[in-house]
Write a sequence for this structure.
């Protein structure tokens, strides 16, 4: 359907009347509760539960999962079928998977290979012209089954080696299967057709089944293929491959499928090896267990056969009824507990999430590792340092750094104190020199073997680049004395004694060794940034030095607030190091505009909306001209702004007028281009230009803008610098440009500290930065663009003037600068605390509130309590505050806690790639263009991509997957064309892809991906991409974890698992005046909301399912839900959280304190026990990801997915009750500062995101 599709409205439910369902205040339901499950669904659930109770001994009929199971192919004579439909039914009857057949026939149509026939009789004539086509198709379909589940593996076997393997196997086959061997074909030297082997194996009732094995020329590099058929009389020695009308009667579909599946498993178990012996052994074993009773051959009367089938059905129904009666006594809501329930069945014990035990015997409180002492090595290191001090190629330049002047002061301070604070201006050399000085002090004192100095950096790039610089200064290589360790990458050796690492790495080390017993010094750099990890590390270190007399700590800051940190550590001494700086001249916006002669055009995106006095709206009916009041206000505001600017800015009237017309909320890439052009053509001063921008998308936009200028494209070398770049890609920015070229580095605030681009002379500061902020109306941590602080501006300014007088261009006015905050807001006060508290539990640091009171700036208590409730609801910690196995996995994934749970479920339910894509989009940005001028087009594309799925989350996946697939198959240029066609942002897509790669590595590191990676390059996915028969591309996590990636219902179930309890209820209200109907959407507190117009659900008049899951709730002109997906009741029942409870008095199945569905007791019993089994299966996998699911767990998950798949036709049977509870919520919404208050009496379904 097109972008403006119109769906049919859901018909009103019968029997409800205008008044709706009865109120719970009446004491009982006024009508009998509806049945939520069809009889077929009830039978399936009963059989699955019976299977679980029996420990897997009672089988579950395959017909529950595959509607074609056991069917024989039949065609109605009077129903005309097209050739493609005829082939579809025929191949299904021959045992091949329906989805695979559909794709295969589509390929036949595309290649014009569909034969022309008038009837099935004509098609199946024994000696007819179509038999060769049918047998070849059977071979090809089996080949498709093989490759759908075959591991891609590089095989280097030449044809001669393959022939030798085959010859050896043939001798073995003749020995093992002499009685069943019929003969061979096409084995002579002159034959060009594929070689074939013929075998006949007897079934249990003595019927022979022929197995024909076709062997390709490059066997075993290429796998063999097989077809099976009943044995018939033949004119020659070998049976003729054919598909005849009686085939599916003599060998039914289910039996055929079991033989084919056995063949696929056997062949794929020997990739690149000889597999014929294993293949024929497996096939013979399956065939020997088949009992095919032909009606004609046995000559049994038809009524006897029917009577037998009826008896089997009655027997099965009796078993089901007996099990259902026993099951109801496990929890019979109408029976008194005193009644005898001895004949009740015993369900498997419910598996709970395991809790993490931390050294209950006190073992983790004992220091086990100590500093190394090696006298021989001490002498060697001392001599080595003396030689380097005299002969080192960089020693002279090191001594010219300002930090060298404080070397002896540092020696004195560190020898007398456990903690020292170093305050060093930009360019002082503190990051590179202080760790080296500490190492050199120990070498000089003759204890160099004990030196193990760890220096933390807030970013990956800083750790790798500084390690490289220090190694160079010591005439060494990275990985020698100096190395680095960052997540999923390290470069250290046994010689390494100075290690630069990210803050998260040392926190992870503290999980393993609380004492850091082998570490002699910890240097914490950039403490002024006040990241959450850094603040937590400071608490840990302050506690650690109480237990480690031999540990020294150095805290380094680039700002003047060092006193705060010194007081935190009990009055530690402060060493101040002045920077080696040349003067830097600062230009603000009022200076830049006349310098480059800039004036934005009225139509420019960098200008405010133009307002002309002659604009009028003509009202024809009233025949007068009315002025838009908003336009008058805009004109008045602009004039007032010019007057205000004149008071605060010393600039010409023309400049003031230009500033008043500029949209200062957006980054002006035109102005950046003019500044760089002015530097390159007017100032003519050599040196690199650093341009500070908030993020990757802005960097790419700026690069495109500069490249579009022919002068700059020819004279400048452009680099980008951001944290998502690989280590090897980042080092190019530190090299000098070719002669005659100017280096322009466009980067984020990663360039502010720690790293030094030593030829920088010019800085362009946009005045913006991306920070992790908690939006008061959201419950997800997001990167938002905010104004920098004065400290940030000074840091950026300090990047210039390293080699000569510098110049800083600020894209904001001096008045704006004066209004900026002095320092960045402490991260602990601007982000949700779930991740921090989860880290406290993973480190076993005790009570979270008591521990966080030790912080430099403790968070508010209500935020801590709310975060604990969130983690309890998600299952990360227990009610008695113990970390669970799920919480441990979540702590290993550095993501928002809800996104972590979503991703974990995606891996366990084997739909990893779509869920990773959606998680990356939620964590980064939408893949669509955000420009206002394309808003209408983007909305149309989003609706077109959604199709019949009312889901913003799926649209994100569809859009990204379409780009990734086109780029993978047709190249980058075609991917770029697709971006233009679908209004996609290429920078955003690339950032999403990089984020997916990181998430995949996190899953692998957490043990949730068992397969060994096939690729180890730093900037790619760990596994080869998976391309399905229907042309879907799955980039990440490999084939096994994408088994269900094509199942939309499974993907949405993972989203529900992560975002619950953010669920809203949709209720259709009929207008009493006959003007139609509308949807009323309410959250758990009873407040009415709307779906945001940008959502694909924004214009829906009616919904097929009454439930919506959403990411956040925002209030503008009204309250809107954003990032919405329609979900089904069963998805909420099975994946929504807490235990189910049935209230027989009201006929309600209660999900939580705000959500309930009306249903019958029988349905409630089945759903409750099935959910218990699902929870147990999921928890088993979470507790031990390396453990393969038992057969019972696999069957339970298959049953759940089958119910979800079939639910679309039955969702209207679900009636949501007005479930009202006087008590508060045990499962509060996921917000950092919920108060725990209960919802209003009219609340229906959970899902509000509270403001802080």
């Amino acid at each position: 359907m097109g972008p403006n599709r119109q769906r049919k409205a859901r018909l009103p439910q019968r029997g409800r009347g205008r008044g709706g369902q009865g109120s719970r205040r009446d004491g009982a339901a006024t009508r009998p509760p509806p049945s939520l499950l069809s009889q077929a669904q009830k039978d399936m659930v009963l059989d699955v539960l019976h299977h679980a109770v029996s420990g897997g001994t009672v089988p579950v009929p395959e017909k529950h999962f595959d509607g074609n199971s056991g069917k024989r192919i039949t065609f109605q004579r009077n129903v005309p079928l097209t050739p493609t439909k005829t082939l579809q039914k025929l191949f299904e009857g021959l045992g091949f998977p329906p989805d695979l057949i559909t794709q295969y026939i589509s390929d036949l149509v595309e290649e014009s290979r569909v034969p022309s026939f008038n009837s099935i009789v004509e098609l199946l004539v024994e000696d007819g012209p179509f038999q060769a086509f049918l047998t070849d198709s059977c071979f090809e379909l089996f080949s498709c089954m093989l490759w759908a589940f075959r591991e891609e593996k590089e095989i280097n076997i030449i044809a001669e080696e393959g022939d030798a393997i085959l010859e050896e196997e043939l001798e073995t086959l003749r020995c093992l299967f002499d009685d069943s061997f019929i003969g061979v074909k096409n084995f002579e030297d002159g034959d060009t057709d594929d070689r074939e082997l013929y075998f006949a194996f007897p079934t249990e009732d003595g019927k022979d089944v022929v197995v024909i094995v076709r062997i390709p020329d490059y066997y075993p590099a290429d796998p063999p293929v097989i077809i099976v058929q009943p044995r018939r009389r033949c004119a020659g020695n070998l049976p003729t491959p054919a598909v005849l009308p009686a085939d599916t009667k003599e060998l039914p579909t289910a039996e055929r499928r079991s033989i084919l599946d056995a063949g696929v498993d056997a062949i794929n178990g020997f990739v690149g090896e000889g597999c014929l012996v294993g293949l024929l052994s497996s096939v013979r074993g399956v065939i020997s267990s088949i009992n095919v009773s032909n009606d004609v051959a046995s000559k049994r009367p038809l009524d006897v056969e029917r009577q037998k089938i009826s008896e089997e059905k009655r027997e099965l129904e009796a078993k089901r009824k007996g099990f259902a009666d026993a099951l109801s006594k496990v929890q019979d809501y109408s029976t008194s507990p005193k009644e005898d329930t001895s004949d009740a069945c015993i369900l498997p014990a419910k598996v709970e999430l395991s809790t993490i035990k931390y050294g209950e015997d006190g073992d983790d409180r004992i220091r086990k590792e100590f500093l190394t002492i090696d006298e021989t090595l001490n002498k060697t290191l001392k001599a080595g340092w003396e030689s380097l001090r005299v002969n080192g190629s960089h020693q002279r330049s090191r001594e010219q750094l300002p930090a060298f002047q404080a070397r002896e002061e540092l020696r004195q301070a560190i020898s007398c104190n456990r903690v020292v604070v170093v305050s060093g201006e930009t360019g002082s050399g503190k990051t590179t020199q202080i760790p080296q000085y500490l190492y050199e002090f120990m070498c000089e004192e003759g204890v160099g073997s004990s030196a193990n100095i760890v220096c933390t950096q807030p970013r990956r790039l800083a750790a790798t680049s500084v390690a490289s610089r220090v190694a160079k200064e010591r005439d060494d290589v990275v990985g020698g004395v100096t190395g680095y360790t960052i997540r999923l990458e390290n470069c250290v050796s046994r010689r390494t004694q100075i290690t630069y690492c990210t803050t998260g790495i040392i926190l992870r080390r503290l999980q393993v060794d609380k004492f850091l017993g082998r570490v002699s010094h910890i240097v914490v750099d950039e403490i002024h940034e006040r990241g959450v990890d850094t603040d937590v590390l400071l608490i840990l270190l302050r506690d650690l030095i109480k237990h480690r007399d031999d540990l020294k700590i150095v805290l380094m800051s680039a700002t003047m607030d060092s006193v705060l940190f010194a007081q935190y550590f009990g009055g530690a001494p402060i060493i101040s190091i002045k920077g080696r700086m040349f003067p830097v001249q600062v230009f603000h916006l009022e200076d830049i505009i006349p310098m480059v002669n800039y004036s934005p055009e009225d139509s420019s995106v960098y200008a405010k909306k133009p307002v002309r006095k002659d604009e009028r709206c003509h009202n024809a009916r009233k025949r007068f001209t009315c002025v838009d009041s908003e336009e008058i206000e805009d004109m008045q505001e602009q004039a007032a702004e010019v007057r205000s600017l004149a008071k605060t800015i010393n600039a010409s009237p023309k400049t003031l007028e230009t500033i008043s017309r500029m949209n200062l909320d957006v980054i002006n890439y035109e102005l950046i281009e003019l500044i760089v052009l002015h530097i390159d053509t007017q100032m003519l001063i050599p040196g690199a230009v650093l341009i500070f921008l908030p993020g990757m998308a802005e960097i790419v936009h700026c690069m495109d803008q500069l490249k579009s200028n022919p002068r700059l494209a020819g004279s400048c070398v452009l680099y980008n610098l951001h944290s998502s770049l690989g280590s090897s890609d980042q080092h190019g920015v530190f090299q000098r440009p070719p002669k005659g070229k100017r280096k322009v580095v466009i980067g984020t605030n990663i360039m502010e500290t720690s790293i030094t681009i030593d030829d920088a002379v010019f800085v362009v500061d946009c005045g913006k930065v991306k920070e992790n902020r908690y939006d008061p109306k959201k419950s997800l941590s997001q990167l938002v663009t905010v104004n920098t602080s004065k400290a940030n501006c000074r840091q950026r300014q300090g990047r210039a003037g390293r080699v000569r007088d510098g110049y800083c261009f600020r894209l904001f006015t001096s008045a704006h600068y004066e209004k900026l905050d002095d320092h960045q807001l402490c991260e602990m006060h601007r982000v949700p605390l779930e991740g921090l508290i989860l880290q406290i539990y993973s480190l076993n640091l005790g009570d979270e509130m008591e521990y966080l009171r030790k912080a430099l700036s403790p968070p508010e208590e209500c935020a801590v309590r709310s975060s604990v409730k969130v983690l309890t609801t998600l299952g990360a910690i227990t009610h008695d505050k113990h970390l669970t196995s799920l919480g441990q996995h979540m702590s290993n994934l550095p993501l928002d806690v809800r996104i972590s749970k979503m991703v974990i479920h995606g891996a366990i339910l084997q739909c990893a790639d779509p869920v990773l894509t959606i998680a990356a989009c939620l964590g980064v940005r939408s893949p669509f263009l955000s420009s206002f001028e394309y808003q209408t087009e983007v909305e149309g594309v989003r609706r077109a991509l959604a199709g019949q799925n009312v889901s913003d989350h799926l649209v994100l996946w569809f859009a990204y997957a379409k780009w990734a697939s086109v780029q993978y198959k047709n190249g980058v240029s075609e991917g770029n064309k697709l971006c233009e066609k679908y209004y996609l942002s290429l920078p955003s897509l690339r950032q999403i892809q990089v984020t997916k790669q990181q998430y995949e590595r996190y899953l692998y590191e957490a043990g949730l991906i068992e397969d060994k990676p096939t690729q180890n390059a730093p900037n790619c996915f760990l596994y080869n991409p998976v391309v399905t028969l229907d042309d879907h591309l799955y980039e990440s996590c490999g084939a096994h974890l994408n088994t269900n990636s094509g199942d939309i219902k499974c993907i949405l179930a993972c989203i529900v698992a992560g975002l619950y309890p953010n669920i809203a209820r949709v209720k259709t209200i009929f207008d009493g005046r006959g003007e139609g109907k509308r949807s009323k959407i309410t959250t758990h507190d009873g407040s009415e909301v709307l779906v945001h117009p940008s959502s694909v659900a924004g214009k829906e008049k009616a919904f097929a399912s009454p439930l919506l899951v959403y990411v956040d709730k925002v209030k503008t002109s009204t309250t809107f839900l954003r990032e919405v997906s329609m979900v089904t009741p069963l998805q909420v029942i099975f994946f929504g959280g807490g235990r189910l409870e049935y209230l027989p008095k009201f006929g309600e199945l209660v999900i939580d304190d705000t959500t309930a569905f009306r249903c019958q007791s029988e349905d409630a019993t089945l759903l409750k026990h099935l959910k218990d089994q699902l929870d147990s299966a999921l928890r088993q996998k979470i507790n031990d990801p390396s453990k393969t699911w038992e057969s019972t767990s696999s069957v339970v998950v298959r049953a759940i997915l089958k119910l979800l798949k079939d639910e679309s036709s039955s969702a209207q049977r679900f009636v949501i009750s007005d479930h009202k509870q006087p008590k508060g919520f045990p499962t509060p919404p996921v917000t950092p500062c919920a108060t725990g208050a209960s919802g209003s009496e009219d609340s229906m379904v959970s899902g509000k995101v509270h403001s802080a």
Q: What stands out?
A: The longest strand covers residues 1107-1115.
